[in-house]
Amino acid sequence: MDTHSIILYICTGIVIIGLLVNIRLFLNERESPTPWERHIKWMCERPWSWRDAILLVFFLIGLYMILICLQSVASIFHIMSDKKTAWPYWIVAGSITFHWASFAFISRLVYRKPLSWKAALGIDLYTLKEDIKKGVIFYLAMMPFFVFYSFLYRTWLHEIGISPVPQEITELIPQLQSSPLLFGYIVCVAVFIAPIAEEIVFRGIVLPLMIKKWGAIPGMIIVSLCFAAIHHNLGTLVPLFILAVAFSLAYLYTQSIVTPIIMHMIFNAMSLLIILNING
After folding, report:
1. Does pTM top 0.90 for this prediction?
2. CA-CA distance, 276 to 107, in Å (whole number)?
3. Which residues have C-beta within 8 Å of that of residue 141, sequence separation ≥ 6?
4. CA nearest 145: which of 235, 231, 242?
């Protein structure tokens, strides 16, 4: 059996298990309904302010503009002009100006308020194992929805004559296998750093503010649309929106940012495995 077949069987198995998990979750919900109003109230009581969010956004935009300026200067003076050679380094720079910078900024906010990580994001060492377990369960539960809506969206794009362009990172990663350090760093970013930073920003800080301002459902929709849009790819717009909604629901349900982080990590790891297998 070749690797492609193994990956196909794994993905099919994940979807089937996900369907069974959803049935179980549905039965559990009927037997013991979730007190959503209490969970929404908890979300609205998160210690973040609009000032925190605005400062974070302007901080990240400032770093992004600096990166754009550096790219422009490099282009003018023909420094790292070969896109194939230069692009990995710009990816690394981008991860520093968003993922690492976001985490540093938020850590500073937590320190200055001052807050515990439990008060800020629901991170509790005593429930960490249970939150990770829930992350695995909810990852399985979201995958049937992800596959179904991704298929519908791709079919619709095809019907209207649009051919989605793959994200540049999907073409870049296989090429980096000849450079172990760069490859290792980008894999680390994709599987660990990006999920942590993105979940803390979008679900940890922005989502509570949106729910407090507009309510649970509109808040989750707005945050999920923003999350999907920042990836700058038409072909992944709806699939990423579905993912973001699932991450938001998981945070609201478990009241711990650990759960959506684990979901995000597993999803990125599986996506990376598929990319390497297809291009391998």
Report:
1. yes
2. 33
3. 18, 21, 22, 25, 246
4. 242
